[in-house]
Amino acid sequence: MPEGGNAPTRVLRGGQFLSQVVNQESRELLVLAELIQPHGRKLPLHEHELAYVTLVLDGHYGEGTQHRFIELRPFTAIFNPSGIAHTGLVGESGTRLFILEFRSQLLKQLDLHLPNDRVTDPGTGALLWPGMSIFSAFKAGSMDSLVLEGHLMEMLGGLTGFATVERTAPSWFRRVKERLHSQFREAIRVTDLAAEAGVHPVHLARVFRVQEKQTPGDYVQRLRVRSACVLLRNPEISLARVAADCGFADQSHFTRTFKRIVGTTPGAFRSALLAA
Length: 276
Description:
Elements: E1 10-12, E2 20-26, E3 30-37, E4 41-48, E5 51-64, E6 69-72, E7 76-80, E8 86-102, H1 104-110, E9 119-121, H2 128-140, H3 145-160, H4 173-183, H5 190-197, H6 201-212, H7 216-231, H8 239-245, H9 251-262, H10 266-274
Parallel strand pairs: 1-4
Antiparallel strand pairs: 2-3, 3-8, 4-8, 5-6, 5-7, 5-8, 7-9
Helix pairs in contact: 2-3, 3-6, 3-7, 4-5, 5-6, 8-9
């Protein structure tokens, strides 16, 4: 239940949490953190300096304000605007959470205004599944900027109620795809693509999802893997060279991404290609 009365409120700065941090990554525009509470616990009244989304991965967790207590079961999500004072209640078996904190410069850069109240997603909204995609890449170590931005823009679009997307591809969409095909080896940002198309980054991400059933980042990773498949036919080219030539951060990033998309490692794929 929520704290009452005039209990002091603790303010948590970006990257500060009341739960144990398992993994954390601080990026230019957001903070990502995996947290655990091993046992049941009541978290004291506090507020976060940054707006954020919480994904409940395991256990039972709830949050309460003066007006409302929300129970969150595994694979549900909640958005909290900055400055909302609330308590937390962890179930007896503990809980595991994934947090995405939005730095203020991200919202200024995108000229977005987030809701002033909490938003929950029981698994059918725009918070949980983009967040789970980010979590999966975060854990696998395969989260390049374009992948992260694509899922992030989908999440922000759902939160802000950004304009709905027509099913017919707009005139600028072909130019965006042509750039991805010609520059997939380079570091590309959703904001760069949006600037070239003359649209908002959130709108671009939502149009891309409708047209291609994936994010720009996923699309680029498939282009890189396809290019790698071509090079793997040559046994004289090392796997490290293939990774570098196709735009992967390093060989381990190449291997993880390749296995996720193809279902096997680059080395095993090469052996299959070259088998007599």
